[in-house]
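User: Teach me something about this protein's shape.
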Amino acid sequence: MSHRTALRETLANVPLFAGCSTGDLRIVARHMQVVHVPEGTVLMREGDRGDAFYVVLTGRATMVRARRNVGVVRPGDHVGELALLDPAPRSATVTAVSPMLVGVLDAGTFSSIIRDMPALSTKLLGALARRLRERDREATAR
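Assistant: First, the predicted structure itself:
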């Protein structure tokens, strides 16, 4: 399977891109950079301004929040998608614990895609609205 196909398939499972067609996902995947990441590299640091979204193709990384290990990021996982919409501080530090191959979409490139494909923004807003409703239902159920 090619890297672009793996990126497209992973994007289909990212909540932000849930309303996108296969063609939309193919375009987004085509604009992503595929980057080799050495073990020990920090992909994102808690508190830093978010400016990119990552899709893991190979390798693993740890996710640490407030100095506590909160998870492992594996092939097929993604981190940082909200940074495409808002440069808020990162909520966790993600560090490669093995050599990795990741797809990277920076916020500037994402903005260009949205500018060139305005219908995509409607799909993204719909996905965000669904996600907010789900969170609201979860919070109400507690």
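Now, about its shape. The longest helix spans residues 118-141. Residues 53 and 82 are 8 Å apart (CA to CA). If you'd like, I can walk through any region in more detail.
User: That's plenty for now, thanks!
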